[in-house]
Amino acid sequence: MNPRPCRLLAAICVALSPVFAARPPEIPVNYDEGKVPAYRLPDPLVAADGSAVREAAAWRKRRLELLEVFSREVYGRTPAGRPAGMHWETTSVDRAALGGKAVRKEITVWFTERKDGPRMHLLVYQPPGAAGAHRPRPAFLGYNYYGNQCVNADPGITLSQAWMRPNAEFKIVGNRATEGTRGVHASRWDIETVVARGYATATVYYGDLCEDRGEGVERDVGALFRTGSAEMRSPDAWGAIGIWAWGLSRALDVLAADPEIDASRVAVHGHSRLGKTALWAGAQDERFALVISNNSGCGGAALSMRVFGENVERINTSFPFWFARNFRAYNRREAGLPVDQHQLIALIAPRAVHVASAEDDRWADPRGEFLAARHAGPVYALLGRRGLGVADMPAVNQPVIGDGVAYHIRTGKHDITPYDWARYLDHADRVLRR
Ligand code: GTR
Question: Is the Cβ atom of 273 under 6 angstroms away from ligand 1?
Answer without folding.
Answer: yes
